Amino acid sequence: MYRTHTCGELRAAHIGQNVTLAGWVQTVRKFGSITFIDLRDRYGITQLLFGEELNKELAENPLGREFVLQAKGKVNERTSKNPQLATGDIEILVQSFTILNKAATPPFTIQDDTDGGDDLRMKYRYLDLRRQAVKKNLELRYAVNRAARNYLHENNFMDLETPFLIKSTPEGARDFVVPSRMNPGQFYALPQSPQTFKQLLMVSGYDRYYQIVKCFRDEDLRADRQPEFTQIDCEMSFVEQEDILAMFEGMVKYIFKAVKNIDYTATVERMTWENAMWQFGNDKPDIRFGMKILNLKSAFTVGGKLLATGELINGAGFGVFDNAETVLAISVPGCSEYTRKQTDELTDWVKRPQIGMQGLVYIKYNADGSLKSSVDKFYPEDKLRAIAEAAGAQKGDLLLLLAGREERTRKAMSELRLEMGKRLGLRKEDEFKLLWVLDFPLFEYAEDENRWVARHHPFTSPKPSDINVMIDNSPVIENAEKYLEHPYNHIKANAYDMVLNGNEIGGGSIRIYQRELQEKMFAALGMSPEEALHKFGFLLGAFEYGAPPHGGIAFGFDRLCAILGGSESIRDFIAFPKNNSGRDVMLDAPSTIDDKQLVELSIRLSVDNVGRENA
Amino acid sequence: MYRTHTCGELRAAHIGQNVTLAGWVQTVRKFGSITFIDLRDRYGITQLLFGEELNKELAENPLGREFVLQAKGKVNERTSKNPQLATGDIEILVQSFTILNKAATPPFTIQDDTDGGDDLRMKYRYLDLRRQAVKKNLELRYAVNRAARNYLHENNFMDLETPFLIKSTPEGARDFVVPSRMNPGQFYALPQSPQTFKQLLMVSGYDRYYQIVKCFRDEDLRADRQPEFTQIDCEMSFVEQEDILAMFEGMVKYIFKAVKNIDYTATVERMTWENAMWQFGNDKPDIRFGMKILNLKSAFTVGGKLLATGELINGAGFGVFDNAETVLAISVPGCSEYTRKQTDELTDWVKRPQIGMQGLVYIKYNADGSLKSSVDKFYPEDKLRAIAEAAGAQKGDLLLLLAGREERTRKAMSELRLEMGKRLGLRKEDEFKLLWVLDFPLFEYAEDENRWVARHHPFTSPKPSDINVMIDNSPVIENAEKYLEHPYNHIKANAYDMVLNGNEIGGGSIRIYQRELQEKMFAALGMSPEEALHKFGFLLGAFEYGAPPHGGIAFGFDRLCAILGGSESIRDFIAFPKNNSGRDVMLDAPSTIDDKQLVELSIRLSVDNVGRENA
Fold first, then answer.
1. Nearest by CB: B604 against A41, A238, A603
2. Which of A164, A218, A541 is closest, CB to CB, to B228?
3. What confidence category does residue A609 fall into, taking pLDDT thresholds of 50, 70 and 90?
4. How far apart are CA A65 and CA A44, in angstroms?
5. Could you give the percent of chain A with pLDDT greater than 90?
């Protein structure tokens, strides 16, 4: 071993001992005839002191930043201790040293606030990984990994590996495929998830399965997507929804405790998908703060009185509200004193193309109880007060209203709510609020193909009470215009998403385990019986031989780590991520391959390529 | 939850409790008006008793094997207890039951000794996985996984995930490749191992890395190879060979204790590659038994006297020995009384094409001290005795001698030794003997290309004392006939293999961490500087910025599990293995993909394919 101790280990108790350390030169500070060097490794930093004699040797072998150094010496008490540093009580009086490896000047500084841009840091990722900020993220990732495994182990789950070279059954996202040399013209696919395998393991009786596993999706990458990503993938037999919710909120709480030392004792809140969509404008509400959305075009109760649809706003002569499909309001706490400039700025904000609204209406519910609005020529003060109170406003609050087509307005209001939450500091990085979103629709309607698509995936079971609705009705949509009236449109899924601070961190469902129901599902998605058999014959077959009721969940491991680490970006929590074009710029991958490889794989390129003739 | 207890849980202490169980029907036994059912789940088997009344209901809803059943009832003391069964003290007096799912008759019996052939069991792997024998294997696999992780965690290793979509740099085995849709004409490769990534992590200062990770090799599959396999992959910084050996024999001993409750307190033996090859005929000796090979054509010492090369056998008029490049002997304990029939059978055995010898010479060292041999017309008794004693034979042993070309004879003798060990019951499934094989040659000579190839891989360091031999000499082989005399032929690798019961379970090396030496290595393998830079520029670059001395090891996880489970076949220890053609017969993968997929990936097939026009 090149060292007797790590650079994070030595304390006052070691004073007088002879030690050997090895690590990287973080800083070199010369003071006349002596030199101080901070030596760094994974575990910490230790100060080395080079006295007069060694200083000469140092002059002949100058040490630069990031040199790899081995130093032997005696642990001394420091004259001026550094309480910021775990090893701050001591320093090493160096007796001899060896330069284990030199280092060129790094292309950016190895510091928390580096001067390296994104591209440079990705190209030299092995240097970026040295920065404390990145190391902390990967340490957190490992801690989450370890905690999840410990919890699942204690609860009788088994880590069972599923294959990576499987069959291409594109549903939803695109598969990455792998040409088979031994089976010319045929391809494996990389798994988008181990979904069908974990179900087979339930059929096999393994009862509680988990895996922390890479999955692959060949999608056009958005800002924070990766073509390969990691899931905590779990499945259980003989369970109902309630059992899964209990088991996995337990897991997340266990992770909170193990990784962040947070006692999450509160009950995890639950919300139907319907409520999430209407009260928060999306299916993954950030419930660290309120500002629930009020739909003024719906019927609702206020002060114990049921109001008719649109009663508070319709017919006042304000055409924008009268004609809008939806009018939504939120009450922003303590902002009634916003200036004209501030409300104008908010109006501009919602008019940006990303939000796409025509305008913004405000109502100030002033501290003195008076009300002022951008639309007070249409609505007298008592109407404004009624609206404000219906939206749950207190004196001193500012109401913001958006009007337009339902889907877009809801989305815009969701964004506006999050923006106001952010501006008011209500989305605290160190506050964690879990939420289960339940009762999703099982199907969505695909207009272009006039068919149903599975909202979650084709293996999700309907709610027990909806199973017969599915079995007894044909999925065929005779009249596309009236798809809303089709019985399939009302079927709820036995599915659940776990949301943390406005991010979906996990999702799952109770699965179909009856062949007949699974066949019906495939048919509903527009698959012919032959196609279903070709793609999923093994699963349909398995359901014939004693499949138990089962369900599961998968957590987005990268995302979970990012949120626990207080970051928006999953890339910071992946050792070797790809960029937005799916490239690894460090490796320069993907890349061309040899013609010999193409020939062996029985494929040809159908594009011209740099330095290669098209076959 | 569909159950209150598992089928392995109930004991006498539960008598009188009302419980609900769920599981699979293992057996149905009718006795007049009552029926016994053994209900099975992952945890065990519990006997259910259906009394007279329920028996009628059973008659209307007959239960078959592998039906999924939920039963509610009371825990009763059994009149005749079954000490073979953990739950054998009790049975459930069933009060009501629900058939959760029916089961068709399985295509083979779900029993340890199944009637299903290999192909059938692979097609219905989800049923095969239900068999106790297979379940035990996967449970062992998980136990090994868990133990390895615990040990590595306790020793400060971090599980850090490395990417699966990387760059194709074929060296040795073939890469599986993945066409990139977003980068037309370019391909990712699946990793053959995370080798370069774990080295980069060392450069990044992560110090102790591990991963239990899938790796991929597109090789022509031999009997017990899989295109995807799992490694316990580890790397450490600031270490020398001795540190790695200590750390990882510690790990394997920890696994022995955790998984098999074996206290492996003995020192792990060590052997040079040279000795392994000459004394055991291969580089992964099974040292559970002796029968070391004696090379009668070499110079060796016997009874304190140094004999000249071939002194005991040459010049006696026996041309086979005189002319042979190598004459090898082993002494088989206690077999001097083998009959003519038995020695003839052994002769036939070595003449089989798989072994390929011309014949077999025997010397019987009889219990009375006399000697008898198939070649005693050439060798008087005192010569035979000298040979016997040189080979370490005792009275009562049988010496077996093979002669021929060195490599083939050594291989044949290795096989014969293992065969005799097996026949004599010396290769005990429940005895475990670890061995480190050390001091491998760094290079092998590739005759067809007149160049060096790396015996381990191109990142393995030479022994410290051989580094300058490598730096100071040109790798070019001017005279192919004299390659044995080239300095590179004598360079030893800083590499080590761990052998368990005659199987290589792990291998690794201290790595090159200096750019100059790594470049020399690439040049020695026949890579131009441009090619080296194109393929491994990132690694060469990394070595410029302060790479620490480091080394590591990778264990073949599938193989390790198989040996610990007392099996020769890794397939039995993989949940969803592929067959010898690399096919998953359950999924029917690989398979053809849609033309749309091919178009998106900018590739065309260069073979005709069933049901597809060639592009």
1. A603
2. A164
3. low
4. 16
5. 86
Give the 3-state secondary structure of residue A144: helix
Asked if residue A553 lies in contact with residue A497, where contact means CB atoms within 8 angstroms, the answer is no
Q: Show residues of chain B in contact with A164, CB under 8 Å.
A: 164, 190, 214, 216, 228
Q: Which residues of A touch B241 (CB under 8 A)?
A: none
CB atoms within 10 A of CB A235: 29
Any chain B CB within 8 A of the CB of A99?
A: no
Residue B121 has pLDDT above 80, yes or no: yes
Contact B546 A24 (CB under 8 A): yes
Structural domains of chain A, ranges and CATH numbers in brackets: 12-101 (2.40.50.140), 134-260+557-584 (3.30.930.10), 289-427 (3.30.1360.30), 441-492+514-547 (no CATH)
The pTM assigned to this predicted structure is: 0.95
Residue among B189, B227, B593 whose CB faces A187 most closely: B593
Whole-number Å distance between alpha carbons of A532 and A196 = 14
Look at residue A614 in the predicted model and tell me its pLDDT: 37
Concatenating the DSSP letter of every residue in A11-51 gives: -GGGTT-EEEEEEEEEEEEEETTEEEEEEEETTEEEEEEE-
Taking the C-alpha atoms of residue B186 and residue B603, their distance in angstroms, rounded to an integer, is: 10
pLDDT tens, A189-206? 999 999 999 999 999 999
Q: Per residue in B420-472, pLDDT tens?
A: 999 999 999 889 999 999 999 999 998 888 889 998 899 999 999 999 999 99
Tokens of A541: 């077959």
For A514-523, write each residue's pLDDT tens digit. Answer: 999 999 999 9
pLDDT band (50, 70, 90) for residue A303? confident
Cβ count near A503 (within 10 Å): 15
Pair A204, B130: CB distance under 8 Å = yes
pLDDT (tens digit per residue) in A218-235: 988 776 789 999 999 999
Contact across the interface for A162 and B575, Cβ inside 8 Å: yes
Determine the Cα–Cα distance for residues A58 and A63; give it in Å rounded to an integer: 7
Retrieve residue A276's tokens: 């999430």
- 3-state secondary structure (DSSP) of residue B186: coil
Determine whether the interchain pair B146/A159 forms a contact, defined as Cβ–Cβ distance below 8 Å: yes
